[in-house]
Amino acid sequence: MRSNRATVRAGVSLAATLPMLTGALVLGIPAAHAADHSGRGALAGTKPAWATAKADKGATANSAQVNARVYLAGRDAAGLAAYAKAVADPSSPMYGKYLNAKQAQARFGATKAQVAEVKSWLKSAGLKVTSVTPHYIAVSGDVAAAEKAFGTQLHDFAKGSKTYRAPAQTASVPQGLKGAVLTVTGLDNAPHKANHKDQLPPPDAVFKNAGPFSSYYGSNIASTLPSAYGQKIPYAVQGYTGEQLRAAYGAGTYTGKGVRIAITDAYASPTIAFDAANYAKKQGDAAWKTGQLSQVLPKNYTKTKECGAAGWYGEETLDVEAVHAVAPAANVTYVGAASCYDDDLLDSLSKIVDNHLADIVSNSWGDIEANQTPDLAAAYDQVFQFGAVEGIGFYFSSGDNGDEVANTGTKQVDTPANSAWVTAVGGTSLAVGKGDKYLWETGWGTEKATLSADGKSWTGFPGSYTSGAGGGTSKTVPQPYYQQGVVPKALATANNAEGNRVVPDIAAIADPNTGFLVGQTQSFPDGSQQYSEYRIGGTSLAAPVIAAVQALAQEARGGKAIGFANPTIYAKYGSKLYHDVVDQPTGKDLAVARVDYVNGYDAADGLSVSVRSLGKDSSLKAVKGYDDVTGVGSPANGYVDSYRRH
After folding, report:
1. Which of 112, 122, 187, 440 has the smallest count of CB within 10 Å of its CB?
2. Same domain for 162 and 247?
3. Three-state DSSP class for 205?
4. Residues 6+ apart with CB under 8 A from 404
5. What domain of life is recorded for the organism (predicted)?
6. Could you give the CA distance from residue 331 to residue 323 in angstroms, rounded to a whole number?
């Protein structure tokens, strides 16, 4: 399961609009504000790619209302990027010399004078300032005032079957403010929101797995079912436990003691404390201690129906229980966003940075790269850079739709996992054997075929593609320095001869068919609310698992923050510290048998029997060395301990 922040915007490549902005963002430096003929500083990337002349339906009414955010560049944007890079680079003399939140803001944040100047300009244009934060100034007003402030006309444009407002020209600011303003968001009103694309039905309605199951990989062979790939196959595991995952990824005796992990999602499960405690007890995990799980929540929630708020409860539950299962002594802070919209998700990330709520941040949400716009990319990257300066690392799931072709018709990666300033976490199918022994992993990619009516064959075997770990080459983000010399040239240059960012960086268990057991209060058909358990997966499982492994590694190095981990992750590439994941680890194709309730709850409406092939991720392949399904691989024995030497 992975929450998908669906910013329903440009359906075409943004590459043509991005060369200046993304070229700077690979080092975290905001784009230079090009001066136009009117003597103003252009804010590159503020006109979305879908706002074309062909789609133009004319000027937006002057009386229409605009809510926008003017993001502040701070007093030294280039210095922020340079510092963020230096403290994360093991070869730099500045490595690990982090600033605290107040120091970071004092050194790189906006000055009082800059804030006053920007506010004055916005008010003089007729806009009302509704809030001021260390990162942005929020304003509201009519279209006429927005046009005056940002030096552009706002028009209505056709986008698919709907019409949205957007700048007809790139927005700009007065030349005297070009150093103070990073970008502006909100001038277009296409919905910038998150939607679920779950591998299982939404957990607000009950879901249970039918048996038979394996207790570990291969423990229960489906001897009465047809063979697949020339051999009898095992039933899917009931759901791996924390003990099995800790063994697979080399946890040893580490527990994450003294480390703080934050989790971001939208909304908040009202039963999370009960569910997490109940699950830990039933699965033999360490009991939660008083104050070990805390929540930082907004005063009010918005757009609960539009965002499907209850659907986010399962996301939080999975993330919290997976982190605790792998790092049982780590402190967990859940930071819930007020809605599934980008603005609110950004606010949650900013809370973590501004108050240094954690050193490690797990994020199981995202969207396709084509829906990301440069203005939001700049805002996200600035938060990630401030985090790096403070020793905070952000981990993002890479997506659950493989190369996205089946989902969108276009081969692309997901965002914010495509940012050069986050660790993108890919997904695997995991086999843990008897005695919690790690057997192998494949890249996560599933093909499904169902049992024939006579029970003698799999209909249309191996079946159709259903889901898989997201990955591939960015079309907008240049290749970061830490990927150079590791990522194969053919991948890096797939969209640009100069080389672009490739996703993911590292990987862990994600396949729902070799997934994790989670416990949650759900709604049953009789209207009751009851705790129950089910197997789940997605890269929203991989992200908290890797975040928890990083907490173990931080404990191993005496509690000193790892911070932005990619330079260190890539420095370890090619060593025995990683499982080098390939799609045929045994030399043969692999599959499991799965039995499900047709109604998702009980056998009243019958059972559905299927074969799920492993290692079949769209056009993406897990191969020897770095690949765009699993990155450098998954953590192996010795990975956690290797951080003691840093």
Report:
1. 112
2. no
3. strand
4. 368, 410, 411, 412, 413, 414, 470, 472
5. Bacteria
6. 10
What is the chain's mean pLDDT, rounded?
91
Residue type, 340: C
Are 511 and 430 in contact, with CB atoms under 8 Å apart?
Answer: yes
Sign of CA dihedral 536, 539, 540, 544: positive
Q: Which of 196, 227, 250 is the last residue of a domain?
A: 196
Q: Are 44 and 154 in contact (CB under 8 A)?
A: no
Q: What band does 311 get if pLDDT is binned at 50, 70 and 90?
A: confident
Our CA angle for 374, 627, 489, nearest 5°, is 70
Q: Which of 605, 497, 476 is nearest to 18 (CA)?
A: 476
DSSP string, 528-562: -EEEEEEEE-SHHHHHHHHHHHHHHHHHHTTT---
Task: Tell whether the model's pLDDT for residue 284 goes beyond 50.
Answer: yes
pLDDT tens per residue across span 154-166: 999 999 899 999 9
Per residue in 86-125, pLDDT tens?
999 999 999 999 999 999 999 999 999 999 999 999 999 9
Mark whether 388 and 523 lie in a shared domain.
yes
Residue 183 bridge partners (DSSP): 71
Distance between CA atoms of residues 235 and 361, nearest Å: 34
* Model pTM score: 0.93
**332 and 475 co-located in one domain:** yes
Q: Is the pLDDT of residue 626 over 70?
A: yes
Are 77 and 180 within one domain?
A: yes
> How many separate domains does the chain show?
2
Q: Which two tokens stand for residue 305?
A: 């129906």
Six token digits for residue 526:
């009789």
Please give the full DSSP string across 96-156, using - where no structure is assigned.
T-PPPHHHHHHHHSPPHHHHHHHHHHHHHTTPEEEEE-SSEEEEEEEHHHHHHHHT--EEE
Contact 515, 509 (CB under 8 A): yes
- Quick check: 405 pLDDT over 90? yes
CA distances from 95 to 137, 485, 525, 567 (A): 33, 21, 55, 11
| Dist CA 645 CA 89 (whole Å) | 14
Helices (runs of H) and strands (runs of E) counted in the chain:
16, 31
419 torsion bin: left (phi>0), alpha (psi -120 to 50), beta (else): beta
Please give the full DSSP string across 66-93, using - where no structure is assigned. Answer: EEEEEEE--S-HHHHHHHHHHHH-TTST
Amino acid (1-letter code) at residue 504: P
